[in-house]
Amino acid sequence: MKFDLVICDAEVLDGTGAEAFRADVGISGGRIAQVGKLSRNQARDSISGEGRLVCPGFIDIHTHDDFNLPLNPLAHGKTRQGVTTVVTGNCGFSPAPVVPERLGLLREVCSFLDTGISYGWSSFGEYLHSLPASAVNIVPLVGHVTVRCGAMGVEERAPKPAELKVMQAMVAEAMEAGAHGLSTGLIYPPSCYGNTREITALAKVAAQYGGGYFTHMRDEGAGVLKSIDEAVSIGKGSGAYVQISHLKVTNPGNWGRAGELLRRIDRARAKGVAVTCDQYPYTAASTGMKTLLPQWVHEGGSDGLVARLKQVKSRAKIRRETLQLIKSGTARIGKWEDAVISDSPSNPESAGMNLAQLAAKEDKEPVDAMLDLLIADHAKTLGIYFCMDEQDVIEIMRHPAIAVGSDGIFLGIPGKPDPTMPHPRYFGTFPRVVGRYAREKSVLTLPEAVRKMTSLPADILRLPQRGRVAEGYAADLVLFDPAIIIDTATYQEPRRAPIGIDAVLVNGVPVLRGGRETDAAPGVVLRRGA
Ligand SMILES: [Zn+2]
User: How are beta strands 31-36 and 21-28 bridged, if at all?
Assistant: First the structure.
């Protein structure tokens, strides 16, 4: 037998952006062995590709799955979309390294993402070894929130030279262990307390290993151009390639500026700085609700924040400044109706309500309803924010250097009730780009949409032999019906599975076949340099 499996008579989209061609795809030993006219009787197993497209598996370049995969390793919400590889550790949040005496603080700053992972490791290497077999491949990043919290707690100040050295050593250890780069979340404490010089010094360590600098920028609203300039300067100063996370323009006052952003990025690219971006195909964002508050409030982690909210004088100041951030166009939302509760541990029935509705129910001002909810949830509250304009989303999507990343946050784990209302992007991102934006709206051609989910992210990440249908490449593949593929997850029913995807292979093993999960776990950690 020459092949373990052959996908017969499919149209092949190879992931490079080229037009589809008809071929069989032969797989052996987890790799694509041959693409062409192949004989079925040379194969142990076959899948008919009649009337279907086969393309490389989708690479979700922006996830927070490190806080979910350890407890939900089969990740059905991902495999059903055709995702075969996830990049973890984004926005500054990685579960490792852990400094034992600051583990409590780390849990607090990551709490809005956490599903109850064990943190039973200290180094990044130990953490990678502890990961269970999962359905998808994992590309890990090390996060600045985690590293800074471990080295100096949640404090609004520059690091002492010795603390910077500790952070650099942590990044080096993570890179040695196989991380692909450093991420920052410059709206999140304590990452937001780091200045450009500190981050450049840390990104330099990642660059020494060929890694990248991935950033959730300081400001995605009125100050977005300045934020892009900062990311570019960190790339220049460190030598790391730059990946701008979930590029967008937030707050109605800034809508229509997508073209300005893209020109700023093109200018840096023309000067030879390696800058690429990713995007999720929705007009709502999702993150911890505490991020609507001013940054000084977060010092000392959730304990510090809640104490300030309970104190009459500081609460009045927080209240005033929060309202001012919204009024001035600096906050991502322009009005309270646009902020929806996604997860509230203290008030699970509120999931799905917007802050104006909660305020009406509780007979309070919306700002007070939010502050009281943050106290009751110990700042873990997760929200969804309708803060973008679809025209901007479309303009950004058309740019050839923008890859697709879900940024999904899913707090559900098998066998446990899940009262949350997650953002549908965790469940629908990839089929939505293909079905809604390529087929229905013609924003992209189908080969281009697939390129943005496959060879583009593989090239950005310098992943060897992933992201293309070509001989010798890993057999991460998706088989779908281009006439019907689409997302069905909505804000009201976020867990609905997409339609039109028949089979998904990870390292040659089906994780979805005949439209059904197989519950196989063939994913591996793709360590940098391995
Ligand atoms: Zn982010």
Answer: antiparallel
- 158 and 83 housed in the same domain: yes
- How close is the Cα of 329 to the center of ligand 1, in Å? 19
Count of domains forming the chain: 3
Q: Do 392 and 502 reside in the same domain of the chain?
A: no
Distance 244 CA to ligand 1 centre (A): 10
Locus of tokens 């129910």: 361
Ligand 1 mean position to 408 CA, how many Å?
10
Same domain membership, residue 376 and residue 232: no
| Sequential pLDDT tens for the chain (530 residues) | 799 999 999 999 999 999 999 999 999 999 999 999 998 778 999 999 999 999 999 999 999 999 999 999 999 999 999 999 999 999 999 999 999 999 999 999 999 999 999 999 999 999 999 999 999 999 999 999 999 999 999 999 999 999 999 999 999 999 999 999 999 999 999 999 999 999 999 999 999 999 999 999 999 998 999 999 999 999 999 999 999 999 999 988 899 999 999 999 999 999 999 999 999 999 999 999 999 999 999 999 999 999 999 999 999 999 999 999 988 878 889 899 999 999 999 999 999 999 999 999 999 999 999 999 999 999 999 999 999 999 999 999 999 999 999 999 999 999 999 999 999 999 999 999 999 999 999 999 999 999 999 999 999 999 999 999 999 999 999 999 999 999 999 999 999 999 999 999 999 999 999 999 999 999 999 999 88
Q: 440 lies in a domain?
A: yes
241 shares a domain with 154: yes
Kindly give, in sequence order, each residue whose CB lies less than 8 Å from that of residue 490, ignoring residues fewer than 6 positions away: 424, 496
Same structural domain, 186 and 120 = yes
Cα 224 to middle of ligand 1, angstroms: 14
- All residues at 6 or more sequence positions from 214 whose CB lies less than 8 Å from its CB, including other chains: 90, 141, 181, 182, 183, 184, 243, 245
Q: Ligand 1 center to residue 419 CA distance, Å?
A: 23
Domain extent at residue 81: 59-283+388-416+425-460
